[in-house]
Amino acid sequence: MEGARHRRSREEVERLVEEYEASGLGRQQFCKKHGLSLTTLNRHRKRKQLREEEQTPGRRFIPVEISAAKQRPSKERCGELLVWLSSGRRIEVRGGFDAKVLEQLVRLLESV
Description:
By secondary structure, the chain is mostly helical. Helix content is 47%, strand content 7%. A two-stranded antiparallel sheet has the order 1-2.
């Protein structure tokens, strides 16, 4: 069967993810070199990242200090919570926000 797709085991793809991360190659270049789809590489990199985060809870968070809020005129009030990400992005959150959605947003923005 010429041209048939080769289905890799999870262990094989995980090994390729490790190789990719050590290779210094771009994702597309690495995938082409190893006959791996970009989607598969991305999916397994994300799984690896989530496993690592579960094994080291709080690893990416830093302690914060809560101080008394300064009163500003209501038209200047932008948000009740301001989060600065390591990438320099800023998120302002108003009261009653969904913590799960905020967590997903932060993960997404930090991975970009």
